[in-house]
């Protein structure tokens, strides 16, 4: 039957349906308390891609996050609708004993997989299964300028078995350009030595084009980010930034930090994948692989 209808036709039909219905894209932010996770969630929603779409009037101070909480907005670009959900998590590392501090996060991730799977095998299957699976997890690294802490390595290692990890250097405005470069290099090396696979994983490069695109991302990682949900006037334009005694750090200015790269990598690239290729974006595809691993591991 497949051969008769033609797999290309089916993929094209699925793509059209996905474009019309929109798709879910779920990101989770994880890391020590106070590294700017909640701020970056707001930055993501407030930054260029979504500035038009949401009525944002929040100017109050961000409270300390005390529970796992998901925030969603529908974004639209080039006719593709995407429901972006960011799952904010309470920072860990506050306790003296941080044993098993990844457990609530792991549990949340696995529960979403299970929920999706249950719906999928349900006889009275919903037409469109809400997808709350975590497609990728942004891991915030403390900008120490030294090394990754053992907790970071342990946490990423555990999480990388069930979710795509994208490490970022938090609060990178606290580092000089040289320190930042050096720290990025060191982190890449330590991740490699620790055997931690971050997204995009080499084993999923499908062809040479994929490999060269992904190599560029891998060489640029971890993105050194700065977050803010406050706007300032710079050269007659309103920009998201952090005002310091010596000037304004512009969050979306690629000369100041790598937030825009991270955002484009996460959002634009995924929208582009949906629009140009198949309904399964690379990330969704990969999380499916990850999912298989989870089930293998638990059975
Ligand atoms: P969370 O605990 O990781 O969610 O951190 P928050 O988003 O609540 O931020 C903690 C504090 O760090 C707040 O005072 C923020 O204004 C500040 N902050 C957030 N992002 C940045 C950043 O990129 N650079 C600097 N210097 N401070 C930041
Ligand atoms: Mg928080």
TrEMBL record:
<keyword id="KW-0547">Nucleotide-binding</keyword>
<protein>
    <recommendedName>
        <fullName>Neuronal-specific septin-3</fullName>
    </recommendedName>
</protein>
<keyword id="KW-0963">Cytoplasm</keyword>
<feature type="domain" description="Septin-type G">
    <location>
        <begin position="21"/>
        <end position="296"/>
    </location>
</feature>
<dbReference type="GO" id="GO:0005737">
    <property type="term" value="C:cytoplasm"/>
</dbReference>
<comment type="similarity">
    <text>Belongs to the TRAFAC class TrmE-Era-EngA-EngB-Septin-like GTPase superfamily. Septin GTPase family.</text>
</comment>
<keyword id="KW-0342">GTP-binding</keyword>
<dbReference type="GO" id="GO:0005525">
    <property type="term" value="F:GTP binding"/>
</dbReference>
């Amino acid at each position: 039957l497949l051969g008769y209808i033609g797999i290309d036709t089916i993929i094209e039909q699925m793509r059209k349906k996905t474009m019309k219905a929109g798709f879910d894209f779920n990101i989770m932010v994880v890391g020590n308390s106070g590294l700017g996770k909640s701020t970056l969630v707001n930055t993501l929603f407030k930054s260029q891609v979504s500035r038009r779409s949401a009525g944002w009037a929040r100017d109050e101070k961000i409270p300390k996050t005390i529970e796992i909480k998901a925030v969603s907005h529908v974004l639209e670009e080039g006719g593709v609708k995407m429901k972006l959900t960011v799952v904010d998590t309470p920072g860990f590392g506050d306790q003296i004993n941080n044993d098993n501090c990844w457990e609530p996060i792991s549990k949340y991730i696995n529960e979403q997989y299970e929920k999706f799977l249950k719906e999928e095998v349900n006889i009275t299957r919903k037409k469109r299964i809400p997808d709350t699976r975590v497609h990728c997890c942004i891991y915030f690294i403390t900008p120490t300028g030294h090394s990754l802490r053992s907790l970071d390595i342990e946490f990423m290692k555990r999480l990388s078995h069930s979710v795509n990890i994208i490490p970022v250097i938090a609060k990178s405005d606290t580092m000089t350009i040289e320190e930042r470069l050096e720290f990025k290099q060191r982190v890449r090396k330590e991740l490699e030595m620790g055997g931690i696979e971050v997204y995009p994983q080499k084993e999923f490069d499908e062809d040479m084009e994929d490999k060269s695109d992904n190599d560029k991302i891998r060489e640029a990682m971890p993105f050194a980010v700065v977050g803010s949900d406050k706007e300032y006037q710079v050269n007659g334009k309103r920009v998201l930034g952090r005002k310091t005694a010596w000037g304004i750090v512009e969050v979306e200015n690629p000369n100041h930090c790598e937030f825009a790269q991270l955002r484009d990598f996460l959002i634009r690239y995924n929208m582009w994948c949906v629009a140009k290729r198949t309904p399964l974006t690379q990330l969704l595809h990969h999380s499916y692989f990850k999912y298989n691993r989870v089930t293998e591991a638990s059975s």
